[in-house]
């Protein structure tokens, strides 16, 4: 299990980086709240100590924000600036171009197929790994992290090898008139593969923390397995699931490598939004590339915003669960 | 309803949690399962509830065999040590849960919840969330929740273990009165002998997955079946293989001729601890052994005891149990 844990940690670190730096903002409000209380302190040594601590905190915050700015803020701002450099008209023309519109809807379609699938599957996997009592659970956990470890390009190639015309099932599929590679099923498979672990990996720790007592209580009260899941488990793990869905959506929207190979990048047919951006860029159509990139970024923002609104609607959630509490705070800042 | 457990064994890996345990709880009884941690008492309770499956043996509730029945069909109310509240539901919805999953009509549910919240004295808190309740309130909510679907039996697993002393005493007094009111067959697990003796009419003493003795609090205290029961249900002095209750040691005033000289010993007062009504006198006997005597505050005052003093004590014949 240790290897899979390490992999999970590593992946968590990668995703968590963004959020930790975002939490810098949260820390700011906390520090301000402490302000008036500390000014009343009588001893000057205590004040000096606090001042040093404040300086340290400030330093850390500047470092975190600077890092974030250099990696994320500046490039994204630059894209926006370059896009709207010559006003709205060229941007509008670029994004309403038929191939761009097709790419946009194709990306949405893939998300609509992949996210529900991976959400249901992710919750199932999390339950199996955390609640199951079978041999090979550790192996299952390891398999779950495979998509994190394997390069998307390799995933794409592997899918072609299995489902392509010369692949294992190629003949059977072709003779039955099913096209997987160079069409939507293959692209959905590639996208599903690379975004597979998020829901499960976000849900497992929450399930673990939840424990089994509430579920046992539900059972003694007469609840069936489904009622117990629906009424007790799911509400308790929902923030883990929601967060996993956000990450899955973001990953599915942005996937390039695996889809690039599986799709064949046929303009106006199997070109997703990221593929379209790449295509425009390679053809020196920077306006088209930037405009599509902005649409992609806005989609990501919309996802985060939508989840944030959902979090607001479910603000009943008790504060006693630190993990979910942090989540809502993070999203609120986003 | 009566509960019957016959020859139940349960192992967790190499650990034998229960070894051939049989218990009968008559209809309407209030019984305590008493034992140290790891004695199997909680496992036995969970086997009765259907939260654990025994490796062998069987469970009957109200005459029906339930050994393989899932927990949800057994009609048991179970109360957990850490309350196991549904944190995302209000107090009302927590208590209503058992009725809601049975698709009871809304009006019926509301009436029953109201009745139960008043029974556990939580009226007015129906709209609160568990995070807004104290430990004692949470445990009463858990009890109301367990009682709502009118269980055939009520099982409580260390229900007061996580509460502070005062709330615990209050709640156990209240549990006893509640039982007098609703008469549902109740088993509760505890490691606190005083709690067991205070609340239950019948006590089952468990140790290492086995039942050591079953009886009323008085029977256990006055006629313990073995060394374990004697030392678990009350304080003891150990003199070699023999056991002696501290309140059986009598400290005699100077010049007393209540007992013949052979029946008394000289003892050195090592330490005197005033514990309110009770005074604990630690003594060293001529052979160097340490014992302690439990006397009342008044006796201590009359005897004018002082540390370092040598006094005369009467030790009645201690109890010796055959090696187990």
Explain what the structure shows.
The complex is a heterodimer of chains A (334) and B (324). Chain A is mainly α and 334 residues long. Chain A folds into two domains: 10-83, no CATH class; 87-333, MetI-like fold, CATH 1.10.3720.10. Chain A is 81% helix and 0% strand. Chain A is flat and about 65 Å long. By secondary structure, chain B is of the alpha+beta class. Chain B has two domains: 3-232, P-loop containing nucleotide triphosphate hydrolases (Rossmann fold), CATH 3.40.50; 243-314, Beta Barrel (OB fold (Dihydrolipoamide Acetyltransferase, E2P)), CATH 2.40.50.100. In chain B, the strands form four sheets. A six-stranded mixed β-sheet of chain B has the order 6-7-8-3-9-10, sandwiched between helices. A five-stranded antiparallel β-sheet of chain B has the order 13-17-14-15-16. In chain B, strands 2-1-4-5 form a four-stranded antiparallel β-sheet, covered by helices on one side. Chain B is elongated, with a radius of gyration of 24 Å. The two termini of chain B are 35 Å apart. At the A-B interface, helix 11 and helix 12 of A face strand 6, helix 2 and helix 4 of B.
Task: Write a concise keyword list for the protein shown above.
heterodimer; A: 334 residues; mainly alpha; MetI-like fold; 2 domains; 16 helices; 81% helix; 0% strand; flat; disordered N terminus; disordered C terminus; B: 324 residues; alpha+beta; Rossmann fold; OB fold (Dihydrolipoamide Acetyltransferase, E2P); six-stranded mixed sheet; five-stranded antiparallel sheet; 9 helices; 32% strand; elongated
